[in-house]
Write a structure and sequence with these properties.
With 263 residues, this protein is α+β, with helices and mostly antiparallel strands. Helices cover 42% and strands 31% of the residues. It has 10 helices and 10 strands. The strands form 2 sheets. Strands 4-10-9-8-7-6-5 form a 7-stranded antiparallel beta sheet. Strands 1-3-2 form a 3-stranded antiparallel beta sheet. It is elongated and about 80 Å long. It starts with a helix and ends with a helix. The relative contact order is 0.12.
Length: 263
C-alpha cells in the first residue's frame, strides 16, 4: 500500500460521519439518497464525505442509469489491519484492558496497586550531541544496542543481551536464555539514518504504553540525537525520574563512549 493512500485512509476514518457511512455499507450496498436520508445533513455534505471515502478506496461506486450504488471496499481496511494492528494486538491487548479497568474505577474505590501509584503521563525530552557522522551514530543506535544498553538498565541479572531487530515490526527484547525473555517494544518507524521509533512498554513495569523516538540530524560537524519518550499508564514520579536518568546515561554516556574516538 502506498504511503499517500495510507494517509488518505486514515484521513477518511478520522471523521465520525464517514465511519458511520462505512458501518451502513457494511450491512449492504446503498443508494446515495438512502445514505443522505440517514443523516441530518444536506445531500451535498453527504456526497462530499462519499467522495473522500471513494478517493481513499474505501467505497466503490456502481452506477445503474441515474442510480448511484455505494459499496464498501474492505480491502484497504484489511491492509491497515495487517500492517498496524495484527502484529501488535496480542502484545497490547492485556495492557489496554488493564488501562481501561483502571480508568473506569469509580471514585473512592479502595485500590491496592492504584493507591501506590497513579495513572499519569510520562514525557521525557532530551538532546545529546555525539562527535561522529549521522550514519555511524544511527548504525550504533540500531545495530549495536546490546553494547550501549546494558546493566544495570535491564530487568534481570541473567540477561544475556538486549536485541533490536532492525526492520518494521521488529522486536526490542531482552534475552534471558533458554527461550525466556521480555519484549520491550516494536519498531514502528525506521527511516535510516534519521529516525527510529519503538512503541511498547519500553520496560516500564505495570500497565504502561508508550513510545520512544530517536531523531538524528547533523549538528556542528557531528550528530544531535533528539530523544522523546512519552508514555501513559499506572506509574509514578520515581519511575519517570529513573527513566530520565537512565536515558541520559544510556545515550549521553554509553552510546557516546561507544562511538566517539578515544583520546
Amino acid at each position: 500500500m502506498e504511503v499517500d493512500q495510507t494517509d488518505q485512509i486514515w484521513k477518511a476514518l478520522s471523521d465520525p460521519t464517514r465511519r458511520t457511512i462505512l458501518d451502513l455499507l457494511h450491512r449492504q450496498p446503498r443508494l446515495t439518497g438512502e445514505l443522505a436520508d440517514a443523516f441530518d445533513l444536506s445531500r451535498f455534505a453527504v456526497m462530499k464525505h462519499l467522495n473522500v471515502l471513494e478517493n481513499a478506496g474505501l467505497v466503490v461506486v456502481r452506477r445503474e442509469g441515474r442510480k448511484r450504488w455505494n459499496h464498501l471496499n474492505a480491502a484497504p481496511l484489511r491492509a491497515i489491519y495487517e500492517r498496524w494492528v495484527r502484529a501488535y494486538q496480542d502484545r497490547w491487548a492485556t495492557t489496554l484492558f488493564q488501562l481501561k479497568q483502571f480508568a473506569e474505577l469509580e471514585e473512592g474505590t479502595d485500590m491496592t496497586e492504584a493507591n501506590a501509584s497513579k495513572f499519569r503521563e510520562v514525557h521525557i525530552e532530551q538532546a545529546h550531541d555525539i562527535a561522529a557522522p549521522v550514519e555511524i551514530v544511527f548504525d550504533a543506535l540500531v545495530n549495536k544496542v546490546s553494547q550501549w544498553w546494558r546493566p544495570p538498565f535491564v530487568h534481570r541479572p541473567e540477561t544475556k543481551q538486549l536485541t533490536l531487530e532492525p526492520h518494521l515490526g521488529g522486536r526490542l527484547y531482552e534475552d534471558w536464555g533458554d527461550g525466556d525473555g521480555m519484549v520491550l517494544g516494536f519498531v514502528t518507524t525506521l527511516k535510516r539514518p534519521e529516525e527510529l521509533r519503538v512503541t511498547g512498554s519500553i520496560g516500564m513495569r505495570g500497565p504502561v504504553s508508550g513510545e520512544v523516538r530517536f531523531e538524528l540530524a547533523e549538528e556542528h560537524g557531528g550528530t544531535r540525537i533528539n530523544l522523546s519518550h512519552q508514555a501513559l499508564g499506572v506509574t509514578d514520579e520515581e519511575n519517570e525520574a529513573n527513566y530520565r536518568g537512565g536515558w541520559e546515561e544510556l545515550i549521553g554516556v554509553n552510546l557516546r563512549a561507544l562511538i566517539e574516538p578515544k583520546p
